[in-house]
Amino acid sequence: MKGSLVTGLAIILLFQLAGLALEQIPGMPLPGPIFGMVLFFLYLVITGGGYDPEREAARHLLTHMALFYIPAGAGIVTLGALLMEQALGITLALTLGTLIAFVTTAHLMQWLSR
Amino acid sequence: MSTLLNSPHFAITLTLLAYLAGHGLYRITGKPSFLQPVVSGIALVGATLLVLDLDYGTYMEGASIIHFMLGTVTVALGLPLYQNLGLIRRHLLPLMVTLAVSGVVAAGSATGLLWLTGSDHATLMSMATKSITTPIAISVTESIGGYPPLATGFVMVTGILVAACGGPVLRITGVTHPAAKGCAMGMIGHGVGTARAFEMGSETGAFSALSIGLMGLYTAIGLGLLMP
Questions:
Q1: Do A109 and B184 touch (CB under 8 A)?
Q2: pTM, rounded to two decimals
Q3: Which residue of A has its CA nearest to B69?
Q4: What are the record's GO terms for cellular component (chain B) (predicted)?
Q5: CB atoms within 10 A of CB A30
Q6: Does residue A57 belong to the interface with chain B, where contact is any CB pair within 8 Å?
Q7: A69 and B45 in contact by Cβ < 8 A?
Q8: Phi, psi at residue B139, to the nearest 5°?
């Protein structure tokens, strides 16, 4: 069980590595990890769902997804001045912008699904 | 003492403890959407850095192993996308048309409003990824010249707004179709909106879950092509 989790993690890291390799090709429009996601998805499609170790490892990672963005998010402490300076624009974009996009998406999908 | 506080051991332990504390707080308070574990986790780490007067760069260097795993989590997002493949196939055309419009409106309305008030390039690029799931948003914003911490903040606020106000807005504007409700919650509110969408029903939740990966991928490709 423990051994299989390491196997699963190694498999997912291989896809991440392959994604980083693809990113090196000039003109590629995607960051490496997202290439990795696409490759992992294609692998699951081709193998009809993959195997227990990598599925189990992926589930564990996704359960604790929030942990992994704490270091990047904590950088907000360095951006206080910028937030103050652009408070109006940021507030407008986050509230009104989100409302416009939300209502558009819901109504378009409802209309198309009639 | 200061060597200890500037060590990777401290950075990693602080991050794990802040995450666990955030989770505990979320459970105890009855899971309100504004207290997402990541919000309180980030707040706890940020407050600790400010109170102990520690340098963010040093902390980030120490916690870089955790930050590295963010890429691994992004790869793992291929799994929920695969699990919803059947649903994607059955609703392919409406999904693709909605996605195509939704991605442009989400990034366009937010950056447009921000641009009107006179903003700089890096802040605009951090705003462009506000409706996609955090791991993808951080990768994308890094590659198009935004600030990852700012992008993370924008993503979280957007998700919380969608989770908190999505239900009433759908009701007031007359949206009843589960696929439409799910797409709006997931394409605009990513993972945070999806948690709320599952409470509205399993079909709504499934559409919301598949929307996270689709929107992330589509926005990443779109911004990658527009902002090389």
A1: yes
A2: 0.87
A3: A68
A4: membrane
A5: 23
A6: yes
A7: no
A8: -60, -45
Nearest CA in chain A to B157: A94
If 0-12 CB within 10 Å is exposed, 13-18 middle and 19+ buried, where does residue B40 land?
buried
CB contact under 8 A, A12 and B135: no
Taking the Cβ of residue A55 and every Cβ of chain B, the question of whether any pair is shorter than 8 Å is answered with yes
Three-class DSSP category at B131: coil
B173 close contact with A: CB closer than 8 A: yes
Residue A1 CB partners (closer than 8 Å, separation 6+): none
Residues B141 and B212 in one domain: yes
Per-residue model confidence (pLDDT) at position A59: 92
B68 and B87 inside one domain = no
Going by C-beta distance under 8 Å and a sequence separation of 6 or more, which residues neighbour residue B166? A102, B184, B185, B189, B193, B196, B197
Nearest to B209 by CA among A73, A62, A34, A44: A62
Distance of CA A91 to the CA centre of its chain: 24
Closest CA to B104 of B122, B131, B140, B81: B131
Q: Which residues, given as ranges, of chain B have pLDDT below 70? A: 1, 33, 228
| CA–centroid distance for B153 within its chain | 9
Tell me if chain B has a CB within 8 Å of the CB of A18: no
- What is the per-residue pLDDT for B174? 95
Question: Within this chain, do residues B118 and B29 fall inside the same structural domain, yes or no?
Answer: no
3 state DSSP class of A25: coil
Closest CA to B95 of B5, B1, B222, B214: B214
What is the domain partition of chain A in residue ranges? 1-68, 76-114
- Asked whether the beta carbons of residue A33 and residue B139 sit closer than 8 angstroms, the reply is yes
Alpha-carbon distance B44 to nearest alpha carbon in chain A (angstroms): 9
Tell me the pLDDT tens digit for each residue of A26-79. 877 788 888 999 999 999 999 999 999 999 999 999 888 889 888 988 888 888
Identity of the residue in B95, B177, B188 whose CB atom sits nearest the CB atom of A110: B177
